C-alpha cells in the first residue's frame, strides 16, 4: 500500500502546526517534531530506494578510479645504488 507524498506532507504540516500551537509544553513540541522526522524519513527512504542502483554505480566507479590511480602511482624505480639515502 503506497501513501502519496502529498498525504505525508499534509500530515507533516498538521504536526508542525500542532507543535507551533503547543510551544508552552516542550514535551509536546518534541513529540510532534519526532512525528515530522518520522514522516520525513518515509519520503527519504522511498527516494533512496528508487535511486539505490545509481548510488552503487557511482561507488563502483569511484573504487575503479582509486584502483587505477593506485596502479599509476606505484611505479618501480630501479635500484642503481646512487641514491643519497643509501648508507
What does this structure look like?
Residues 63-87 are annotated as: Disordered. This is YwdI family protein. InterPro entries: DUF5327. With 87 residues, the protein is an all-alpha fold. It has a domain at 23-56. The protein contains two helices and no strands. The protein has helices at 5-21, 26-73. Helix 1 (5-21) packs across helix 2. The protein is elongated and about 80 Å long.
Summarize the structure.
The protein has two helices and no strands.
Radius of gyration: 27 Å
Major beta sheet, specifics? none
Spatial shape:
elongated
Q: Provide the β-strand percentage band.
A: under 5%
Residue windows where pLDDT falls under 50 for at least 5 positions: none
Following the backbone from N to C, one meets helices and strands in this order, namely: HH
The overall pLDDT, averaged over residues, is 79
Q: What separation lies between the terminal Cα atoms?
A: 74 Å
What is the number of strand segments? 0
Helix percent reads: over 70%
**Which structural category fits the helices and strands?**
mainly alpha
Instruction: Please tally the helical runs, counting DSSP H or I stretches of 4 or more residues.
Output: 2
Q: Which terms summarize this structure?
A:
mainly alpha, 2 helices
How do the helices and strands line up, and which of them pair or pack?
Blueprint: H1 5-21, H2 26-73
Helix pairs in contact: 1-2
Amino acid at each position: 500500500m503506497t501513501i502519496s507524498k502529498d498525504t505525508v506532507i499534509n500530515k507533516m504540516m498538521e504536526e508542525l502546526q500542532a507543535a507551533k500551537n503547543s510551544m508552552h509544553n516542550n514535551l509536546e513540541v518534541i513529540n510532534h517534531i519526532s512525528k515530522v522526522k518520522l514522516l520525513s524519513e518515509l519520503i527519504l527512504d522511498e527516494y533512496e530506494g528508487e535511486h539505490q542502483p545509481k548510488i552503487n554505480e557511482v561507488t563502483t566507479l569511484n573504487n575503479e578510479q582509486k584502483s587505477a590511480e593506485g596502479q599509476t602511482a606505484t611505479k618501480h624505480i630501479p635500484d642503481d645504488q646512487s641514491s643519497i639515502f643509501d648508507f
